[in-house]
Amino acid sequence: MGILTCPFPVTASSHSDTPLPSKSSTFFSSSLFSQTTLPSVHSLTPPSSRQHDHQTSVLHHQCLATLRGHSSYVFSLALAGNLLYSGSSNREIRAWSRDPSAHPHSTNNIDVAISNIGAVKSLVIMGDKLFSAHQDCKIRVWKIDNDNNVHQKYNCIATLPTMNDRFLRFFSGKNYVQVRRHKKCTWVHHVDNISALAISRDGSLLFSSSWDRTFKVWRTSDFRCLESVSNAHDDAINAIISSNDGFVYTGSADKKIKVWKKQAREKKHSLVTTMERHKSAVNALAISTDGCVLYSGACDRSVLVWERDTSNISGGTGGHTVVADVLRGHTEAILCLAVVLDLVCSGSADSTVRVWRREEKNNYSCLSVLEGHRRPVKCLTAAIDNGDNNGGGASDSIIDLKKKKETE
């Protein structure tokens, strides 16, 4: 088994000229249907700023390239150096060059890159290791050989939980938990789809969330499962992120966002606070670089902006208890979020990506609506392009893939 490094087939086009087909009602699962949006939250944007928002929202963006090769839905994306990694529902993980001119005349004629494992639900990179979460309830660790930056090699060095981890807990009854009416397994196992992965700031810990309503903590040095928080939510956990100051955030289909932290001299993460303002399932979470702002997207078609309440930090709440603003505009469920500098990108089941800018006094304006996808935008990733553009400095570069099936 291995990961295929793909050339970058390019199709340059303007998305504004791309006709969008009508959506088939049979395509969307019940979890993607949008529900009634939130009641109005007092906006922090004064009338003068709203006029400015309207002016900046007419910016046009052009599609630089379309990456083709997956034959099924794209579920996950991750950026590392010059490569973009993508994982799909047909068990593929592909690596693409971020430079559209790297292989302008190449085509992809290789079939499945990884076989016999579940759909790839989430990807994260840490140094020379790629972590992938799968529908078969396992996490796989891939060692990246960086000797050749064009055709890299990938070896699966571990599957979590590891055999050693399972063996150590096999004989003691206290290590078993009830997962179904007549079935038990050790607590190191996820027993449903693994929905998301996150890495701690120092890279020592890997967090995984699952539809089994638990999240687990893994040590990246030896891949041992250190902790499992059972019944963390009342329904499937769809998103998990870790902040630089040690807080862990989980978003669930139970409409709640929960904040967790391992306090000093404690061995396990404990619940800090529960944030309840969404009116339907929470699908995506993202956090600003400085850790002061949390963004959450849900099936209620809104992106909530949570800001630190400094008066509560001393009480151990983590500060993310105040809804400062609501970003509206999508017509269907929010499925993914990405933050880079002062930009917030939201992908939706309405097949569009919206780019929002955080401005002075924490006002937000919608800079652009990126159209052209023909299916729900399931995943997003973003990075700063430090290349020189027309003599300018750094520019914002957004790379996104849709949840798609090219055979349709």
UniProtKB/TrEMBL annotation:
This is Uncharacterized protein.
